[in-house]
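Sample entry (297 residues):
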Amino acid sequence: MKLVCVICLFLCYGATSVAQLHLPLINKDRDKDFKTRDPDQVADTLRSGSDQQRNGVATELDIVTPNPSNLTETSGAPCTTFNHVEERRVRLRTDADNAVIVADSSECDSTYLIVFDRARKSEWKHLQTVRLYSRTQRPEISFAELVRPGASEIVVHRETTRESGAAEQENFLVLKLLHDRLVTVLDAVERMEVTVPRRTGDASDNIEQSQQSTFTMIKNAPKSGAAMRILQKELVKEQKASITLYRSWNWDPELERFRATVSDGSDVAQWQPPNPAPPKHAAETIPSAKVMQQTSK
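Predicted structure, serialized as tokens:
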């Protein structure tokens, strides 16, 4: 009974985390959002530009600090101090070249994804800047061709969505470029730890609840509608009790989202890496003295 309540509580937390992810709103007149900027120059400016230059680029490209009273919202003030900036050339859609600048700022408690697009024989355009909250740790950013070959999605591990004394939560995200905007097409809890007070009679204590998920990307069969699917293994614990759940996240072309279906875990076991072969016995690898004598003769 307790585990059922725990799962319900986790689902409530997971539902609210989607609303907390900060993504800029889509304006009706998109052409006004486009800003011509060379990504190499932007990365160099963020690394080593003057204060005035960094301020100008941050203001123009929506690289803004979080709101101190609500870290999931922005304050409007530009973020101008970065401790690590890297540029990655990828293809987020099949008919264009893209560049993504990943800029970490411990001072602004944020990791910024600055996305550029260049269609064939055209100039670079700034499409969007997405801010990920990262006060205590940096989210892990990678790229994978999940939906179709030739176009990558942005995969984010351990993006902090909740951080307090009683609750900590990190999410797994997949961001996809759809209609010239980066959209969250998968958002699932990757790690959660919750402390719930419980009072029995005149005494009170705390109940510790946790959730830990691992995500495995596997290739789909040909003509299955997507290049890959994502398998999730979720371990839910409360005190000494635990339960393991499995989900398969599959691409839905009509909704343009990944949708989860319940799995019995056989898929996860099937796609585990095989155990390495045991080393051969020394007698099989080292020739005996008798064999060596015969060889020499």
